[in-house]
């Protein structure tokens, strides 16, 4: 009889504990089994815990703070991720500044943006490969506006003729980056460096044949 009573009490306790553990919201993570498995020692900007005593009962940290405290005390507001220094401009992977001209500013981009990539045989070879991959479906292998996709959408520019011959490198870069009329932007598919390689290929090969 005593054993049955003890077992039923144990059952109630386990059920209660289980239900209690299910309660969790933004500030309370519920009761966790083996919490050290969940809480990273590394700084985590998105789950930052600023309460120094959180997890004290569990802690064996040398700095005597709670197990769950994971903020950087050396930063203002104990932030884990610092804000960029005021007035600085981020550069992307290739070291390029962000491209700030708007789609309609093609004229001024054409006058002001210059090609930072040095012209070499290797660059031309890359440019050719990229032109065939990204541009030839519409503009054709030789840039004459006669690609298979171009036949369907129509109105594709013949890059080898008329006023197109005189387009500046900045203008072509702008059109690849922002698109123009029925040609869409290729910024998400082609990195800035590769766009400039294509520009070299258009100017040096497509428009000189
Ligand atoms: C989906 C088809 C398509 C693809 C792919 C495409 N273009 Fe175009 N392109 C067009 C069309 C259509 C026009 C004419 C746009 C207009 O003026 O309405 C055009 C126009 C141009 C112009 C002339 C811009 C001007 O100022 O009139 C250039 C330069 C150009 N494309 C370069 C490229 C390069 C380089 C690529 C490859 C990175 C490329 N295009 C890929 C369809 C395409």
UniProtKB/TrEMBL annotation:
<feature type="signal peptide">
    <location>
        <begin position="1"/>
        <end position="24"/>
    </location>
</feature>
<dbReference type="GO" id="GO:0046872">
    <property type="term" value="F:metal ion binding"/>
</dbReference>
<keyword id="KW-0732">Signal</keyword>
<dbReference type="InterPro" id="IPR036909">
    <property type="entry name" value="Cyt_c-like_dom_sf"/>
</dbReference>
<dbReference type="Pfam" id="PF13442">
    <property type="entry name" value="Cytochrome_CBB3"/>
</dbReference>
<keyword id="KW-0479">Metal-binding</keyword>
<dbReference type="GO" id="GO:0020037">
    <property type="term" value="F:heme binding"/>
</dbReference>
<keyword id="KW-0408">Iron</keyword>
<feature type="domain" description="Cytochrome c">
    <location>
        <begin position="122"/>
        <end position="206"/>
    </location>
</feature>
<dbReference type="InterPro" id="IPR009056">
    <property type="entry name" value="Cyt_c-like_dom"/>
</dbReference>
<dbReference type="GO" id="GO:0009055">
    <property type="term" value="F:electron transfer activity"/>
</dbReference>
<keyword id="KW-0349">Heme</keyword>
<protein>
    <submittedName>
        <fullName>Cytochrome c family protein</fullName>
    </submittedName>
</protein>
């Amino acid at each position: 009889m005593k054993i049955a009573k003890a077992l039923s009490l144990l059952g109630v306790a386990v059920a209660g504990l289980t239900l209690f553990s299910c309660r969790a919201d933004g500030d309370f993570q519920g009761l966790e089994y083996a919490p050290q498995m969940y809480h990273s020692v590394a700084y985590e900007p998105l789950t930052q815990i600023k309460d120094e005593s959180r997890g004290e009962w569990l802690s064996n940290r040398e700095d005597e703070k709670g197990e769950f405290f994971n903020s950087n005390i050396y930063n203002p507001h104990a932030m884990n991720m610092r804000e960029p220094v005021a007035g600085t401009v981020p550069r992307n992977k290739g070291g390029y500044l962000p491209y700030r001209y708007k789609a309609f500013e093609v004229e001024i981009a054409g006058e002001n943006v210059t090609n930072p990539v040095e012209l070499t045989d290797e660059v031309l070879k890359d440019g050719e490969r990229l032109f065939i991959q990204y541009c030839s479906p519409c503009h054709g292998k030789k840039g004459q506006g006669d690609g298979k996709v171009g036949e369907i959408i129509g109105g594709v520019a013949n890059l080898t003729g008329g006023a197109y011959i005189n387009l500046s490198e900045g203008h072509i870069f702008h059109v690849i980056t922002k698109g123009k009329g029925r040609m869409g932007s290729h910024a998400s598919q082609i990195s800035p460096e590769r766009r400039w390689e294509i520009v070299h290929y258009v100017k040096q090969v497509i428009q000189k044949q």
